[in-house]
Amino acid sequence: MNGKLLQFNKLFDKEETKKFIDWFLRNYGSIRTVTLLDKLKLLGFIHATKSGVSIGLEDLTIPPLKRNLEFHTEKKFNSMERRISMGKMHTLQKVRKLDEAWKIINELIGEEVKKNFKQSDILNPVYMMVFSGARGNFTQVKQLVGMRGFFVNSQGTVLKFPIKSSLKEGLNISEYFTSCYGARKGIIDTALKTADAGYLTRRLVYAGQTQIIKKTNCFSKTGQLTLITKENKEKYNLTEKKIVGRVLAKDVYDPKTKKLIASQGQDICRYVVKKIIQIKRIYVRTPFDCKLNNGLCQLCYGWNVATGELVDLGESVGILAAQSIGEPGTQLTMRTFHTGGVFTSKKSRVVDEEAICSPVDGIASYTTKHGKKLKTRYGEPFFFTLKTKKVVISKDKIIKAVIKFPKHTMLFLKPNQKVYKKQIIAQADNKKKLTGFENDELMAEEKISYTPKTGLIKFETEFETSKKRNKSLRFSNKIKGRRVWLLPGNIVTYTELVYNINIALTCKVYLNFNSDFAKKKKISNQLTRSFFPIRINYRTFNNLSRFNKKYYKNSRKSQNEYKIVKKNIKTSEIFITDNNERWIEIKNTKIKLETKHGLILYKNTPLYDNFINKYTVQVIEVRKNKMCIQNMGRFFITKKNSKKLFNNDFLRPDFKLGSGRLYKGEKSEDIIQGLPKIEQLLEARKTSNLKNLKDNPNEILKNEFITLSRKYTNSTAVRKAFEKVQNIIIERVQKIYKEQQVNIADKHLEVIVRQMTSKVMIIGNGDSNLIVGEIMEVNRIEKINKKLKNKIRYEPVLIGISKISLSNPSFLSQASFQETTRILARSAIEGKIDWLYGLKENLILGNLIPIGTGYNKL
What we know:
With 858 residues, the chain is α+β, with helices and mostly antiparallel strands. Among the domains are: 1-52, no CATH class; 213-315, no CATH class; 353-432, CATH 2.40.50.100; 571-641, no CATH class; 668-857, PTS-regulatory domain, PRD (Orthogonal Bundle), CATH 1.10.1790. The longest helix has 38 residues, at 14-51.
């Protein structure tokens, strides 16, 4: 560090520490990094011991808003039940609304848990342990002090009702019974599914064991085209990850000056990425392009991911790849045991929209001009604003808050409706800006440049004098250059700024880390080099609320087992009457309803004081003090699926009225559901449970080859078809792992997929003595074809990882994997010779294995 002291102006949690160590390793090398890590370890132990942090029951604080949210949600569902009984709402709509609403409440309670910890006690042991990344995760904290939420059974199906209690409050009998499903799933997964993940690792090791770095260069002339995107920081980082550690297949020139930026055969480091970022298309070498039949060359593989340097000769990259792909599966399988079968969804709200909650209790009022009354997909009415709409929330005739919504906002309120704090009152496009008012005077639209890091913030805004009608703060003096020491999320009572207003302005700073603010900005003359100016959205409210806040972040993908084909289902009502008639004798009472013959009385309809009808019935006869009724059943059937029925038709029991739509809730997609998909891809399966798999790689390869054969020569068509399938397999496997927040380098998958796409089947032998139907390595056939006039014709074949292991030239390696007796017997009959080139055969015989220091002994 050359005698200079490094300064980092930020909070170091687990993620920041990882980034710091990565940066240090790149800049100062592995030896100095080891010393730093040792010092960090010692520092951590000392302070962990001195602090003496431990969890007690007092540290588990339940957010005060939890009860209120649950009470109002239950109230809402009771009203939904009444609407169903009155025939105003479909049961299907209720089921979907129930799922969605509880997920939203679960997320809201989660946010309240975070806010409660931050505002009440940031030195809370639970808060420190979890949010620093030292131990546990937020799902566990939410279960302890929030609500346990939805659970999944051992098949991964989400159970109908959530557990509303937290572990601190304690579960009732039914909730405890529900939670047993999750516990059982955890134990089953740990016991059985870990074995599946381990078996996948074993197959991968056998498939990749022959992949050893054999040569420095194979002199391959082909390379993979990589498109460089630099639209924002996230895409730039993804591109950087893809190409750092690769070797260029072609020279790279500056498009303007035509000067050479990087040459063919040069490895790409982060410095080179910055130089070539202007070029949109570059060619890099990958394991797919290597021309060696057995093993790989250094330049096609590139850097060793572990060391950040060019891979050494004799490195067993196949086993490294197998371990990297298989290990996360084993770890994630065991992790499901600790979460206790809790379901987390990615569909807790409408995509690209934000839920806006009421900041206070009160009565919300607005005008119904410039808008339309519509219905949601759950059949609930809402007001769609066509122009900017102002909603006033007042309590006891005192205005508590005024919210200004942009156009195209969905308002879930009726005029003069009661609202409670944190009730979802609207949904708006998150690209729109919402403006909040306090006492109809304060407008939160000031933009202040400040740093998201902890440090000094210099306010350079001049506050101009303005009148109340402009909806902005009124100041008598100009204030410039105030300095305040702020921590992210801290509350600062700042009374100096408001001279002519009697209230103190309490404000809270929210940090917004959108990609828009990651771009470099020119620093204005007002800011000196001592500051870190970054533009943010700044919102101030007296009640410490922010209206355009995102509430939902989910970690697992979900899917519907059955899709509802038609959204707006038109329904017809069918009443089935029972013959058993009942007489109701009414003493000294007066029936409020005008009863007549044939009248249908719905469930929960009040007939007279203190008497509510419990069933849907039809009036047969009315006398002076008696009324004869009979039971009725009400069914909703879609018009297209109903049978032809006429009024007063006689129906026998078990008569099929029509075919309805089957609705099933979401299904959890953790690694337990992901592992079979990874296995299907790597085993190149065509069917699953005797059904053809849709879009399976084998079909894609076959169709792609047929299409390309019309345009290109046989060898080019095969290579291009393989390239397409290779990318598809890698993309699909990566998608499954990324959903579990697991990052695997593409290089590892490329090594395994190269083995799967390395062989072809001969369909025309040409001038060679090869047999039609024989399977051979594509590299070997290409070499043979160079010497033949009448070329061999062949088609691509996709081979699963188990078949790769069984097609190994070494019979000892084959026999140690599967079908030992058959392989040994066949090898003995054929008189096979094992030349002991690979790892497994040498390991069995106790020889020095041909990798690492034993590589040159071969």
